[in-house]
Amino acid sequence: MAEVRANKKVVFKDFITGFPKESDMEVVTTDTVRLKVPEGSTAVLLKNLYLSCDPYMRSRMSKHDEASYVPDFVPGSVITGFGVGKVVDSSHPDFKVGDFVWGTTGWEEYSLITAPEMLFKIRYTDVPLSYYTGLLGMPGLTAYAGFHEICSPKNGEYVFVSAASGAVGQLVGQFARLMGCYVVGSAGSDEKVSLLKNKFGFDEAFNYKKEPDLNAALKRLFPEGIDIYFENVGGLMLDAVLSNMRNHGRIAVCGMISQYNLEKPEGVHNLFYLITKRIRMDGFLVFDFYHKYPQFEEITMQYIKDGKINYVEDAAEGLENAPAALVGLFAGRNVGKQLVVVSHE
Amino acid sequence: MAEVRANKKVVFKDFITGFPKESDMEVVTTDTVRLKVPEGSTAVLLKNLYLSCDPYMRSRMSKHDEASYVPDFVPGSVITGFGVGKVVDSSHPDFKVGDFVWGTTGWEEYSLITAPEMLFKIRYTDVPLSYYTGLLGMPGLTAYAGFHEICSPKNGEYVFVSAASGAVGQLVGQFARLMGCYVVGSAGSDEKVSLLKNKFGFDEAFNYKKEPDLNAALKRLFPEGIDIYFENVGGLMLDAVLSNMRNHGRIAVCGMISQYNLEKPEGVHNLFYLITKRIRMDGFLVFDFYHKYPQFEEITMQYIKDGKINYVEDAAEGLENAPAALVGLFAGRNVGKQLVVVSHE
Ligand SMILES: NC(=O)c1ccc[n+]([C@@H]2O[C@H](COP(=O)([O-])OP(=O)(O)OC[C@H]3O[C@@H](n4cnc5c(N)ncnc54)[C@H](OP(=O)(O)O)[C@@H]3O)[C@@H](O)[C@H]2O)c1
Ligand SMILES: NC(=O)c1ccc[n+]([C@@H]2O[C@H](COP(=O)([O-])OP(=O)(O)OC[C@H]3O[C@@H](n4cnc5c(N)ncnc54)[C@H](OP(=O)(O)O)[C@@H]3O)[C@@H](O)[C@H]2O)c1
Q1: B261-271, pLDDT tens digit by residue?
Q2: Is the Cβ atom of B172 under 6 angstroms away from ligand 2?
Q3: Which of B163, B191, B201, B167 is nearest to B307 (CA)?
Q4: What is the 3-state secondary structure (H, E, C) of B274-309?
Q5: How far apart are alpha carbons A38 and B244 in whole angstroms?
Q6: Which one, of B168, B124, B14, B118, lies nearest residue B76 by Cα?
Q7: Which residue of B150, B231, B232, B327 sits with most ligand 2 atoms within 8 Å of its CB, as the best mutation to test the pocket?
Q8: pTM of this prediction?
Q9: For chain B, where are the alpha helices, taking DSSP H only?
Q10: What angle do CA A212, A218, A220 make, to 5 degrees?
């Protein structure tokens, strides 16, 4: 007889508008889970170790009449997202008990994954496995593909990154420094600004909340203008950037977190500069770059071993603290990559 | 002794804000011109035949504190712009009397061109020379390079063109049809809509002034969505297009004429779709594609000879009517390419 366990989980209560709140989720231990995959399936059973808090999850908390780019959460069901887990049972030929994987899982102690082909096997266990929620996971690949594939960077170019101390931003800045670019980042606290300059090696950084005039701040830090903008926030920042771009500049549109909780997005007024400065603005989704993951993992592991990349994560302990951790992204409470520790092993 | 002639011209009075008016320009015949280039120069003297009215000229009527992408007009001086002329004297080895050229000239009967290297020699005189203000000139190259170089079109794709009956738009639509695309255009009158469908071979067209809901109009005409948007107008239309783009769509940002006379540009709200639909938005200026002119001219001449391209121009007779013709662009009074006939030979 297979072991049966209580399975604590974070349940999505109901669709929301505006800013998410902790009370939009509920931590419950009502179900039990059998630690065995069903007979005749090709599933794996995961023990979840680390869960990733990602801004795109906000979109899944809203009801969409037309299908969105990611499916809506199901009210009353467990939250799903990226995470790192350990295989505790498997009937899939590619996975065996004891394997570590990352990919989409549930916000719960144990998850049955019925399409394990979608999981990535973790090849390097000589780094903290939590890195696979960030530096070596989806946000890392986002930074890597977004910067190298979308921005067409060249040595010596002027690069600006917003939400720069976060999971994606801290890596974009470091990839840009490794390419020999001049890099400036913006972030929402002096502590983060100091991280950018002292830990991640940004050439300059500023606290956007303390700048009465974003346009003036960018002019000060980019007297020659911006070649590459890695866009994480949207809204007012985008408008200020557009007036400070150089001819033939590129904008990788990765995220617009300042807009995710608004009823109606703010208007962007300076798009005419796209023409006069011949700017390319390119939206992208990391999902289109999964085939680059092995190459990215290889390169990034080497950077880590050579001490060429620094990484800061912000770990919330326990599923009980997962709702607050997720909600905190939208107030900038995370310092570095926000994750939730379900279990250290 | 060289002949001296009166030289009627259109003078720019003073910098403006808002919509341009005829009274912002003045037609005068105060100067005379000597029909000979100065001794020791490498200039040419042009008799101007056809002048081009182009939307970008509006920008030159405003005072810019920072240098803009085109120089401001000089109050009290003659308006300059694209035109077609005949060489009546030359001390430049590449140009001889009787040559026809197109390029930047003055809004006057005769212009002394001191840097004739910037002029294009007209190689085909078996088409109306006025075509070199449009179909075979700057707007033609804009349509050609903008569509083929920026939009990466593929056979069978869904293409939308705004300001579609104008100088650039009518050609973009026809280039797209020649590529086997499905093409819809918008324009500001029923007469123009009928031109689009019956003369230029657009699959569909609509009068945007009669559509209470642009989003609904685009949904109706593009049930599968838009792959390529050739952007000529900006503002509300851009927002409606963004919600109707398909995944991996492309937007060539050519112009935003609906914004040129506003004190503050309207806000564009739907940019988040750039990410979820992985849209590329690419601003461009025709000046960057001048090296493609010979190839473009060759191909387009062949289309004309084969009867594969139709062309509609709107000619104002005489310099006296030039201010009204220019101003008319911003009210949509032109039907097809707006030009001014200074002299038929
Ligand atoms: N395209 C893709 O495939 C893809 C994949 C992953 C992530 N993304 C996007 O990338 C961006 C960064 O994601 P991440 O995972 O690295 O998150 P993160 O930066 O680690 O966390 C979010 C940060 O956004 C900032 N923020 C929150 N509200 C803001 C506001 N109103 N204005 C400006 N900044 C605000 C906060 O930092 P401050 O203290 O600095 O304000 C917060 O710490 C997000 O927009 C996300 O949606 C896109
Ligand atoms: N990037 C470049 O290098 C480049 C080069 C050339 C031209 N352009 C741009 O391309 C666009 C078309 O130029 P064109 O020479 O072909 O001009 P055009 O279309 O021949 O003439 C301008 C037309 O714009 C439309 N229009 C005027 N005000 C409008 C408004 N508020 N909203 C919507 N439509 C409006 C009118 O047509 P309706 O009756 O249909 O409203 C008018 O006939 C312009 O935006 C221009 O600036 C860019």
Answers
A1: 999 999 999 99
A2: no
A3: B201
A4: HHHCCCEEEECCHHHHHHHHHHHHHHHHHHHHCCCC
A5: 43
A6: B14
A7: B232
A8: 0.97
A9: 57-60, 138-145, 167-178, 190-198, 214-221, 236-244, 273-276, 293-305, 322-328
A10: 95
Contacts of A207 (CB under 8 A, 6+ apart): A186, A187, A188, A189, A190, A192, A193
Atom number, ligand 1, closest to the C-alpha of residue A338: 20
Contact list in A for residue B275 (CB cut-off 8 A) is 253-256, 283-285
Instruction: Tell me which chain B residues have a C-beta less than 8 angstroms from the C-beta of A271.
Output: 234, 238, 253, 256, 265, 268
CA distance A184 to A172: 11
Cβ–Cβ of B265/A282 closer than 8 Å?
no
Looking from the CA of B149 toward its CB, the CA atoms found within 13 Å total 20
Strands B44-52 and B110-113 turn out to be antiparallel
Residue A256 in contact with partner chain B when CB distance is under 8 A = yes
Q: Is B55 on the interface with A (CB under 8 A)?
A: no
Q: Are A138 and A132 in contact (CB under 8 A)?
A: no
Is the Cβ pair B254, A273 closer than 8 Å? no
Contact (Cβ atoms closer than 8 angstroms) between residue B255 and residue A246: no
Contacts of B233 in chain A (CB under 8 A): none
What angle separates helix B167-178 from helix B190-198, to the nearest 10 degrees?
A: 30
Alpha-carbon gap, residue B259 to A263, rounded angstroms: 25
Answer whether residue A10 shows pLDDT above 70: yes
pLDDT for the residue numbered B1 = 61
Please say whether the beta carbons of B228 and B253 come within 8 A. Answer: no
Measured CA to CA, the distance from residue B104 to residue B118 in angstroms comes to 8
Cβ pair A340, A318 in contact under 8 A? yes
Question: CA-to-CA distance for B168 and B161, rounded, in angstroms?
Answer: 10
Minimal-distance CA residue of chain B relative to A258 = B272
What is the mean predicted confidence (pLDDT) over B190-211? 98
The ipTM value here is 0.97
Tokens of A1: 């007889």
Whether residue A275 and residue B269 make contact (CB cut-off 8 A), yes or no, is no
3-state percent helix, strand, coil for chain A, nearest multiple of 5:
30, 25, 40
CB pairs < 8 Å spanning A and B? 94
